[in-house]
Design a protein that fits this description.
By secondary structure, the protein is α/β, with parallel strands linked by helices. Helices cover 35% and strands 21% of the residues. β15 and β16 form a beta hairpin. α1 crosses α12 and α5 packs parallel to α6. Bound molecules: NADP nicotinamide-adenine-dinucleotide phosphate.
Amino acid sequence: MELHTCDLPDENILSPCTIVIFGGSGDLTQRKLIPALFALFQQERLPKPFTIIGCGRTELDNTTYRNQLSDHYRHEGNDLSAWLAFAANLHYQTIEYTKESFFQLAATLRDLDQRKKTMGNRIFDLAVPPQLYPIIATLLGQAGLAREHQNDNGWGRIVVEKPFGHDLNSATQLDKVLHTHFHEQQIYRIDHYLAKETVQNLLIFRFANTIVEPVWNRHYIEYVGITAAEKLGVENRASYYDNSGVLRDMFQNHMMQLLVLSAMEPPYRLSPDAVQDEKAKVIKSLRNFHPQGSRLCLGQYGPGTIDGDKVVGYRQEQGIPEHSKTPTFAMMKLFIDNWRWQDVPFYLVSGKRLPRKETRIVIQFKEVPHSLFQGMLGDSIHANRLVIETFPEEAIRLNFQTKNPGTSVCLRSMTMDFSYHEHFKSISLDAYARVLLDCIGGDHMLFWRQDGIEASWAFLTPVLEECERHCQSGKSLQFYPAGSWGPETTTDMTRKIITSAEYNKASSL
Ligand SMILES: NC(=O)c1ccc[n+]([C@@H]2O[C@H](COP(=O)([O-])OP(=O)(O)OC[C@H]3O[C@@H](n4cnc5c(N)ncnc54)[C@H](OP(=O)(O)O)[C@@H]3O)[C@@H](O)[C@H]2O)c1
């Protein structure tokens, strides 16, 4: 029997709760959080009852707030009744980041609990710039809102968006403040990449299929390529991005997570802690990295063309300093020093203003040890390649050789193709909807644990410091035209990983 359901928390046992969104007037709330919550509401997956309170310094009343958020759904011919039913649970409270304001918020929450019967269960979602994370955690603590299960007052959870710090030191500092007021099990550090079906499916694919694990190691795999290519530039996040760059924005979190899911050992059971233990081990096994060597390439996009339209270079983007040395592209070649992966290169590539948006993991297998067909076909037998794609499609593709029909021996590469959306017609959840639902259900599986974050920063911080020294001197930053696959020195390798063309050898970086 095919199993079409997933292990989402059973909505019938989700406790009533209030979701407090700090940054309720912001971009993330409008574009991701509210649409995700509305989708859950339409699928009847939110607890009953529930309440949402947007908070911010902007002065708004409930009606204006609801109207602002509804713009997205007001299209001619659209039935607004579902939105109106959802919006009746939406509230807004103007706040300042002061003790008094948070005591007022606590009073509002108590009042709503009484009226809406939300039982004192609260999720505090920090959809605000990261410098506010410690301030909000502290104020929640001071207002008594971080307490849990005291006098049966329900639970309290805090949801933190990336970036989790700027380097190892700031990540540890942030954690210290969070832990002053919240226990680890109350903290949910979101990485929405992990909530994609194919990313989760990687564990199932690896550990629920006998044929996969025996070949998932250095004996059969030539290299692993992990790519997160973006077509967009910095958009309206110039000041954040120019202080972060691609290594902080993509590598510390999303790329590391894709790496650990590809490389981790099977956990002894499928519990959040057992999975996190195995993930942390992979990061701790990464071979020391010296940015000056040939294992890192950093780039920045210049003017170019995307989809036939001329676009400006990074330094001409609004809000970016004209001599900025911030990298918008990176390719890293990493090694994991353990028995399974010794000397197998992992290529991590991410960049902005590349020709198309694409996220994928490529497992490139080794060539057959001896080719029977070499005399007839020369060297051109492509080795097997497995592609696990999360964007634009959620798909798994395995490339293998077959014989062309006819009397002569002529090989042809074919692809076994599994598309998630073609095969599973049931409604799949958007990544934000999935993580919010898991947080409501108290499931930590898809969230970062602090030791993973610290291990990731411990690996990347010296690299970042070294890169920043070199980039500032202008030594190691290479430029690439927007719309290309990155700096010239890397395009050969990038194309091998990104494009669907078949290659069987990793060229040296
Ligand atoms: N947007 C995305 O797609 C995205 C993706 C991944 C992660 N994130 C992370 O999610 C968080 C929120 O992102 P966002 O794009 O929604 O941010 P945002 O629009 O810049 O800010 C959200 C809200 O925070 C308040 N705010 C801004 N600056 C403030 C300041 N200096 N002091 C106090 N309040 C301030 C503003 O509300 P008031 O003025 O009303 O207080 C603003 O509407 C950030 O940490 C970001 O890194 C965002």
